[in-house]
Write a structure and sequence with these properties.
3 domains, 15 helices, alpha/beta, binds guanosine-5'-triphosphate, Alpha-Beta Plaits, Rossmann fold, about 45% helix, 5-stranded parallel sheet
Length: about 425
Amino acid sequence: MSRKVLIIEDHPASMKLMRELITKAKLKPICATNLIEAKHIFSSSEPEEFLCAVVDYELPDAPKGQAIDFTLSSFLPTVVVTRYLDDERRDAILKKEVVDYITKENTQVYEYLSRLLSRLEKNKKVGVLVVDAIRARRAAMVSLLRRHNFITFEAPDAEQALNIMQRFSIIKLILVDDDGLPKMNAIELLSELRQNFKKEDLAVIGLSNSKNSALSARYIKSGANDYLLKPYHHEEFFCRIMQNVEYMENIELIRRAADSDFLTGLPNRRYFFEKVQASQSHKPVLQSLAIIDVDHFKQINDSYGHDCGDYTLKEIAKLVAEHFADYTAARFGGEEFCVYFCNVEAADVHKVLEDFRISLATQNYQFEQHSFNCSVSIGLTHQTKGDISSMIRMADELLYKAKNNGRNQVVSN
Ligand SMILES: Nc1nc2c(ncn2[C@@H]2O[C@H](COP(=O)(O)OP(=O)(O)OP(=O)(O)O)[C@@H](O)[C@H]2O)c(=O)[nH]1
């Protein structure tokens, strides 16, 4: 079920724009044109259904931001929309614990709102660790982070920070203030962290005093992703955080695209080689490798069309992902898949492959008006010392035998 966003806005054009934007973000807009209506809607709903509220600062029955007080007191993360903004209003808004504000200036600003809403949903899965010797400073940062739905962790020193990092893989961002850190300073902490976490997997933002500008450069040279000068304005705080978290997410997207097969979404050959070589570096005692090839696949293409061939490959890929979730499996290209088993007894490998072969052969495939069956042949090799290329060569020879023996079978050495 999609999460709801409560919009309180009396201006029809702005309401229409926000409603469209929220729907596009796969969230459900719940609209009220004044505070009384909003209170009525909220009292007859389950509060946890709402992701947040987007509230106009100035409403007919709430001219001075009273609707914001209502949504905040209802524990709804609140984004404020305002027609104009002078310093006084900006301060008034930011004094309240709102997520952010946007001004109704242009459509770009609404795009920012869209980005913000999707972040609020995604942030619930992002852990942020605040490392600062002073409890009050930690609390101030944690409070800001929680407004944006981040999962927060705190450490008063580097030692505890490293300890927390070992236990919680959900942490993707660290904010570290060097000022007063006992024993190990922030630069030393950074160099420890970078031994285990790359910049693309863990962003570190160093906080420094504007009087100590050299520290900012030292942070970056020592492996920090960014720095923030104190005293920071909380808008800048959020912009930096958003930018760094989005940077890591984009890298992750690129990585995933580079590692996976476009048609089926399974890992690709390149990723397979990388994974197997990493496993082999631990000198496994037992290794098995299977090449799986669809039988008479050309006939499926020729009889029912290329789209049907693609559909069949995707269905087979689903079975591959399901049956070999505990091993390293990939689409090698065309109608060929490959699975590597590390330290698995030969009899167990055989059983897993036979189960897969049988379940694939007994499944009925339906595409448009066509209904058909298909099968696979499998070449399986067990080796103690073989490198990946020699294992593939051997599995290929065994696959050839399986094809010649009549297909729909596993042949191993
Ligand atoms: N639809 C579709 N077809 C593909 C794709 N990749 C390769 N093919 C087709 O897969 C077919 C493979 O045919 P062959 O190598 O002759 O093998 P086969 O028909 O499966 O026969 P055997 O392996 O001997 O059982 C070719 O027709 C390729 O065009 C793909 O991504 N999508």
